[in-house]
Amino acid sequence: VQLVESGGGLVQAGRSLRLSCAASGFTFEDYTIGWFRQVPGKEREGVSSISYNDGTTYYEDSVKGRFTISSDNAKNTVYLQMNDLKPEDTAVYYCAAGEFYTYYGEGMDYWGKGTLVTVSA
Question: pLDDT of 69-110, one tens digit each?
């Protein structure tokens, strides 16, 4: 069972990035997929989630209106489109899969290793 994130990088404020989360060894069916982020020295925080079966999405206030989570069932992949990026979005971004989403990720069973997003002013 593995989750692999990709798509991170260095961008200027106001630009966009799309993160991908691909699963291997299991399917996302019946799972809730969450995106989380963590700045070194700070707690991991939730960003967004999607229920893979019915497509229900959720966004934290900090990213609402700028980030969009989506899924591609055929590819067993979840995406996080991040627009109008801000320096405070700089973090390592993780995807996770589990039964339910919470801000700190307690409901997640599987985690990826993360991808770094750096937003310069």
Answer: 999 989 999 999 999 999 999 999 999 999 999 999 999 999
CA 35, CA 5: separation in Å to the nearest integer? Answer: 10
Q: Which residues contact 49 (CB under 8 A, 6 or more apart)?
A: 32, 33, 34, 35, 57, 58, 69, 101
Helix, strand, or coil (residue 36): strand
Cβ atoms 78, 50 nearer than 8 A: yes
- Which residues lie closer than 8 Å to 40 by C-beta, 6 or more apart? none
What Å distances lie between residue 74 and 5, 44, 51, 52, 71, CA to CA? 17, 30, 15, 12, 9
Eight-class DSSP state of 97: E
CA-CA distance, 47 to 82, in Å (whole number)? Answer: 11
